[in-house]
């Protein structure tokens, strides 16, 4: 091809772009952002982004006990900044909300960003007529392994509950049992999930006692009995809920080694990430942490030093799908698997987002599962998730695949609710 012909061809190609399909035609302007705070069993902050093309997206922005703070952040500070912006520009909008506010990180900021981010991914999937996992790169698996919760007032109650879950097909189970001599042990609560039920109409958090000595003496007995009853094939998990010091957690991890846990969760607070280095030096029990993390920076040292085995960030609390994808990729480099938080204070929108991420991420490990049995919850949210033989299945629907009934949500008014606080027996405030 000579020079003139080459130039002519290039000129024609550029003309084709400008005349046939202008980039402006791809714009999808955000026309409104609606924020709903409802309580169909638990309080949820739901974000709905509407566009000039008639397509909308849904996101979850719930922070348990601080719901109205997130709602105000979205309504007063984020919404005015995004009206008129192109809903397709997910990355730029995420950076705009994170870097542009100057005040970075924190649970309120990151949950607000998460609600927007999920809704934008939902919109993009609907436009493409593809489920979000396809936009991430496609599936790494066709089903999602989950672990269920077995709780009880006694060892026998807990193990009977576990036996029922095993019969239902679960392959992995978290064991939490009331500690003898301690009322209101975390994870038991007599089956209650609604903490506002425990507050006796007071606007204050309920308080629970804690004794580390009693706990450390009891928990190994629970897992010994579990292995004697169920053998070694069932995978077992335990959540310390950050109540130990690093050396105490190391002691527990070592005591639990004979019982081959899938992981020990939140064994110590992680503000000082080096605490997990100390635990790692003393035990081979796998470690998991991250449900209250807000950004990759909370987990950076833990992952790159391989002090943990599972990272448990939740899409709602770490800024959405966009940063979750980055965290999963970063963790994969260091042989760390994902195990997203799956508490009942995350709405079905977040659980659907996790299902798409779990389907995609090659280094996915296991998903915490609490189910969606509440009638009110299923009235407000229609989701694409189903459970079969210990695995969650994700139906192929465009976007996240969740529908939200605004009228139904209006029936379930917000109820002020706080998570409990913990005190040692001498009155010292401790980690709940």
The helix fraction, in percent, is 25-40%
Number of continuous helical runs: 14
Give the termini separation: 74 Å
Q: Identify the CATH class of the largest domain.
A: Alpha Beta
Rg over CA atoms: 23 Å
* Biggest beta sheet summary: 10 strands, mixed
What is the total number of structural domains?
2
Secondary structural class: alpha/beta
Extended strand count: 18
Shape: globular
Q: What integer is the average pLDDT?
A: 92
User: Strand portion, in percent?
Assistant: 15-25%
How is the topology of this model organized?
Layout (H helix, E strand, L loop, with lengths): L2 H18 L9 E9 L5 E8 L4 E5 L6 H16 L7 H10 L7 H22 L3 H5 L7 E9 L2 H13 L4 E6 L29 E4 L1 H19 L4 E5 L6 H11 L6 E3 L9 H8 L4 E3 L10 H5 L5 E2 L9 H13 L3 E2 L9 H13 L6 E2 L6 H6 E2 L2 E4 L2 E4 L8 E2 L1 H6 L9 E4 L4 E2 L2
Parallel strand pairs: 4-5, 4-12, 5-7, 6-17, 7-8, 8-9, 9-10, 10-11
Antiparallel strand pairs: 1-2, 2-3, 4-15, 13-16, 14-15, 17-18
Helix pairs in contact: 2-4, 3-4, 7-8, 8-9
Description of the molecule:
The protein has 432 residues and is of the alpha/beta class. It has two domains: 24-130, Enolase-like, N-terminal domain (Enolase-like, domain 1); 135-399, Alpha-Beta Barrel (TIM Barrel), CATH 3.20.20. Helices cover 38% and strands 18% of the residues. It has helices at residues 3-20, 67-82, 90-99, 107-128, 132-136, 155-167, 212-230, 246-256, 275-282, 300-304, 321-333, 348-360, 375-380, 406-411, and strands at residues 30-38, 44-51, 56-60, 144-152, 172-177, 207-210, 235-239, 263-265, 287-289, 310-311, 337-338, 367-368, 381-382, 385-388, 391-394, 403-404, 421-424, 429-430. The strands form four sheets. Strands 4, 5, 7, 8, 9, 10, 11, 12, 14 and 15 form a ten-stranded mixed sheet that branches. Helix 3 (90-99) runs antiparallel to helix 4 (107-128), helix 7 packs parallel to helix 8 and helix 8 packs parallel to helix 9. The radius of gyration is 23 Å and the shape is globular. The relative contact order is 0.15. The model is unreliable at 1-22 (pLDDT under 50).
